[in-house]
Design brief:
With 91 residues, this protein is mainly α. It contains six helices and no strands. The chain is globular. The termini are far apart.
Length: 91
């Protein structure tokens, strides 16, 4: 993937540690917040939220670009779970 390609909202959320980490950073209630942030992965982060937390999204963008330059995929929640499971069963 080209490092100058547009960064998706899903990548931004994953770069910050996944939906739960974003919910905690934004200070939203857990259940309601998780539903909201998971919807953002598909529908996009609302413009108002982007402006309110601009520094946080810029930080996420830098993380995404660093991973792209190194050629490494972002460590998503499911990849972390899969790695933990394989290490537990010894694969």
């Amino acid at each position: 993937m080209d490092s100058t390609a547009e960064i998706s909202d899903q990548e931004l959320i994953d770069a910050l540690g996944g939906p739960l980490a974003v919910v905690q950073r934004l200070g939203l209630p857990r259940y309601y917040g998780l539903t909201r942030v998971c919807n953002w992965r598909a529908r996009g982060i609302p413009f108002k939220i982007r402006l309110q937390y601009l520094a946080m999204w810029k930080e996420a963008g830098k993380i995404v670009l660093a991973h792209r330059r190194q050629g490494k995929p972002l460590p998503t929640y499911w990849n972390k779970r899969r790695a933990a499971a394989t290490s537990r069963i010894g694969l």
